[in-house]
Structure formats: structure tokens, C-alpha cells
Predict the 3D structure of the following.
Amino acid sequence: MKFIDLFSPIVGQAGLVTDPAALRAHNTDWRGRYHGDAELVVKPSCTAEVSAVVRACHEARIGIVPQGGNTSQCGASIPRTGQGEIILNLSRMNRILETDWENDTLTCEAGTVLADVQNAARRGGRLFPLSIASEGSAEIGGVISTNAGGTAVLRYGNMRALVLGLEVVLPDGRVWNGLRGLRKDNTGYDLKQWFIGAEGTLGIITTAVLRLFPLPHARATAWVAVPDPQAAVSLLGLLQARSGERVTGFELIARMALQLVLQHIPGSQDPLPEPSPWYVLVEMDDTDPAADPQGTLSAALDHALQEGFVTDAAIAQSEGQMNALWALRERISEAQRLEGISIKHDISVPVSRIPAFIEEATARLQEQFPGIRVVCFGHVGDGNLHYNLSKPDQQENADFIRQTPAVNRIVHDTVDRLGGSISAEHGIGQLKVDELVRYKDPVALELMQGIKRVLDPQGLMNPGKIFRATTE
Ligand code: ZN
């Protein structure tokens, strides 16, 4: 039976994508690194339809690639080629189903765009804190499935900390309704945690109950020049000692990263008169409208200036300036893409070891690959760096990309030696399947494979992601 005849009785014509151009877009990731060949994208409009589609795939042994906004950094939402998989896209399921302001929760379908969740919370005077560069197109199901992090993890935690309940369609089509808005529930295993960060390999998240927080009413943002990463770590300690949880953002940015933004993003401006090798973008919030985070931040920066771990700083004086500073940070990935091909890493180490990681990895890379450009930025408070490499000016793209395994070895060996992780917030997808086997504790990997076998014995849920596929 043709795919289309199998699924059109379930989702109707409105739920099927067969147009070649649209199919191509669904089969390609945003970086243009992965190309699938799914002949069909199925777009269910409700959980019952997802369940029926999954059951049909289970019976016909068809692999399913769940997809939301298709903003994965590691090819997690793109099918493999030659495997006859379908894409199950959740974008039509984009309703906010319930808000409970006294419980501080919002319940929405998996295809709801992250920015729409943030806006709905804000309309109720609440904050949904998760913030990532792709929030205008990333959808909640994908954000949960990758346990996304972003720029506010320091204060509010990553996605795992923000999900209270889930509804999931299991690989055989059964629906698990775990849609509870509870902060305490000790009735055995916390099953939702299996699906958070599982990258769609255990089932399809269809609805979620999310945690909300009080909306901050006062905000201060500063662009701070620091001499080196150790100074950034010291500054974080100073700010947290003085302001605790009010420090909500603390982003490290290498000069090279800023330079690419200034070069490629029209209208961007260097906030400081003199270049510095490193910067920190600091944000402090307060829920008290009468609070003066700007005064607190300014006093702390003065102190740091005297201590020598800050060399200059610009504090935003308006909402427009705050947004301009954040744009410099958020557009680094885009600028790097415009500059050309790059080898990316999303690593974490204990915060205290960030300086050692940058120093060791950079020294070893520059020794082995003269001229390589380190475009390093990330979330110092979470010990998470995007340690990206751009090619030397003179080198051809293809030659540079061929060196990826050797570059990865240096970076990931350094991470491993320092007790870190090779994927802090992007996930494994297709990109890091082999690296996971290399670095993950073998007992942990066995346990993960055991859970996979219990839930998805046929290996039909996002095959070839996280694990090497068992169906090939
Ligand atoms: Zn990040």
C-alpha cells in the first residue's frame, strides 16, 4: 500500500505534504548539512490522529521521524536516506489548551512555537523563561525532546526543569496521559523524564504542562570587557555573591565571535571603543518594579574594574540598547554561517574548569591546525560553551570539513579529561552518534539501550538518532 493511501484516511489531504519543494524543506536541516528522502510528511491535527498514524506505522513497520520547527543543531529532525521513513510534523498542533495562573502552569500542544508560549505567559503577567536563538520557529515538542537550554538556564534551569507533565504517543500507538501540573509526585518512576531529551526515540510528545514564573519588572543589561575566561568566571562569582538568583544571563563571547557579527550583520555596532579579547553579556532581573538592578550591576562592575577582572563595560540605558546588546549575542550563529563552513561543538565542563578547557583545547588545535579560528561563546554560568571552529582564511571548505574527526578528537578528549559532556544542550541527533559511543559510560549506554528496547522494540522511533539504528 502506498504511504498516501495509508495516511490520508487518518489525517485527510490537509494533513499530507507531497509538494516537492515543501518536501525538500522538511527533508533539509537549517544548516544544510543533512538531507533526508522522506516521500511524505504527515501533519496530524490532534493526539488521536498522531496515535492512529503511529499505530499504522507500527503495523506496517515504517520508521517515523518526529519534527517540529526543524531547528535541530544535530540533524535530529531529518530522516535518513534509503530507509523509507516518514516525517511526522507536529506544527498543526499549536494550541495553548489551558493556563492556570495560580498554579503557575501553561498547557500547550507540541507544535506551539516557543515564542508563542513566552507571549501567552507574558499576557498573564508570567514568565516562561526558556530563551534560545531559534525561539521564533522552534516548537515546544522539539524543545522538550532536546532538553533545550539557552540563555536563562543559570536562573531557571533547562527544559527538564520547566516541564511538569506530558502526554506522549508511544511507539505502538498507545497514549500515555501524564498531563499533571504537580510539583510533587512520588508515585514511583518519573516517566516524563524518559521522554525529555530523548529526541523522539521513545515516543512522540503531543502535549505538555509547563512551569511559569513571576514576570521581572526591572532589568539591567551590560556588555563587559574581560581580559580572559578566568576573569569571566570570577565576575560571575562576584555578581552571584551580591545578587544571587537575580543574575539571569551570563554569556561569554570571544572577540572573534563579535567580529563576525560586526562584519556580517548589517547595523551591528561594537558597544565599546577598544577591542577586548573576551566579553561577557550580563543580565540581571528583579520582580520588584522599585528595585534598581542597574545600580547594583554598576556598583559590582566598578568593584570588578578595581580588582582587575573587568577592563571596560557599557550598561544599556534603554530597552532598545538592551535588545541591541542581546542581538550581538544571538546573531553569532547566523554570522558564522555567513562567514562560511564551520565545525561546531556544544560542550559542558564544571564552571571552574572553563578557563582550563579553553586554554588547553585552543592550544592543541592551533598547534595541529595553524590558522584555525576559534569562535567561542556560550553560557558560562552553566559551564556550557559553543566552541566553534571556522576555517583558516586561505583554506577550502572541503579541506577544512575533512578535518572534522581530528578536530573533534582534540576538543572532546579535552572535555572528557576535564569531566565534561560532549553535548550540553543540542543533543546527539545524527551528528554525535559515534561520539556518544566513544565517551558515554558503557553502563549508562546499556541502560539507555534497554529503555529503548522496552518502549520501541521495533526501532521505529526516529531511527539512527542517539543510537546507531537497529533496523538497518
Ligand atoms: Zn546555547
Notes: The longest strand covers residues 218-226. The domain at 218-333 is CATH 3.30.70.2190 (Alpha-Beta Plaits).
